[in-house]
Design goal:
Elements (H helix, E strand, L loop, with lengths): L1 E5 L3 H12 L5 E5 L3 H9 L5 E2 L2 H5 L4 E4 L3 H14 L5 E4 L5 H6 L9 E7 L19 E5 L6 H13 L3 E5 L1 H29 L6 H4 L2 H7 L6 H10 L1 H24 L2 H11 L2 H9 L1
Parallel strand pairs: 1-2, 1-4, 2-3, 4-5, 5-6, 7-8
Antiparallel strand pairs: 6-7
Helix pairs in contact: 7-11
Length: 284
């Protein structure tokens, strides 16, 4: 299958590597607004050639859009304008409501599948691309009823080739849930690192004292600002609601700490430990 990958960072690069090695893609044309990303992807053998967006999607059987969500919203109508009548387009954006709205009335809407493969690392760029990034992860497909049966089938085969589990939901429902389980954790990590850097800016001991807990919580703060700032703004209302609830929990925690209420603090921590049941069940 001839594939065009628009966006050659971690996701696009990892995607291209797996699709080539698993025999799904016979030829991959890449495109990236960052010339270095494009050249690196070509030199690393991630793509077979580099082209403009218009030429990359023309003649492709499948177009995979793996750029930041703000760019997807702007690019998607242009991509649909330039594709052939049998081409399928799948985006990999972490938000869905605004993206789907951008092409809601497009005459080629049925050739598009709105998807969100939940996978990634804190690294960025084609040099960070890895094999098996998507294995055993989940993909959410939104508004499947608006995609043609053929387009949906191509997308489903794509994600099965990547060894992913499939879920289906509406775009707004997706954005609400992801605000809590994906976007809020990144907000917390970014904010916590900024807090520590401000509080400890004159300390020579900051990184010498930091333990594994700090490392675990700060991993997400290494994520690309180019990717995450648009996610926060596109999903602003739902992210804001999630932040409000989190602030309320923090304020309760602060009150209990100030009161030195070990009993209630213990109960709060015990309740948090229930997450083990959820995560253990999801792995089984």
């Amino acid at each position: 299958m001839k594939i065009a990958v628009i966006g050659l960072g971690l996701i696009g690069g990892s995607l291209a590597k797996d699709l080539k090695e698993r025999g799904f893609a016979t030829y991959i044309t890449g495109n990236d607004v960052d010339e270095k990303n494009a050249q690196d992807a070509l030199e690393l053998g991630i793509v077979d050639t580099i082209s403009t967006m218009e030429l990359a999607v023309k003649g492709a059987e499948l177009v995979l859009v793996t750029v930041p969500v703000s760019a997807i919203t702007a690019l998607l109508p242009q991509i649909l304008n330039n594709i052939d009548s049998q081409t399928v387009v799948v985006d990999f954006g972490s938000t869905k409501e605004q993206i789907c709205q951008a092409v809601k009335t497009h005459p080629k809407r049925q050739q598009y599948v709105a998807a969100h493969p939940i996978a990634g690392t804190e690294k960025s760029g084609p040099a960070a691309a890895v094999n098996n990034l998507f294995d055993n992860k989940t993909t959410i497909i939104c508004e499947k009823e608006l995609s043609a049966a053929k387009a949906l089938q191509v997308a489903e085969v794509l994600f099965k080739t990547l060894n992913m589990n499939l879920m289906y939901m509406e775009a707004r429902e997706h954005d609400v849930h992801l605000a809590y389980v994906s976007h809020l954790p990144h907000v917390i990590s970014f904010a916590m690192v900024n807090t520590v850097l401000e509080a400890e800016k004159d300390s020579q001991f900051l990184f010498r004292l930091a333990g594994s807990g700090f490392a675990s919580l700060t991993r997400l703060a290494k994520s690309s600002p180019d990717m995450w700032a648009p996610i926060f703004t596109q999903n602003a209302s739902h992210v804001s609601e999630a932040i409000d609830l989190y602030i309320a929990e923090l304020e309760l925690f602060k009150r209990l700490v100030n009161k030195k209420d070990a009993t209630m603090l213990h109960r709060m921590l015990e309740r948090s430990n229930e997450v083990k049941n959820v995560t253990d069940a999801s792995r089984s």
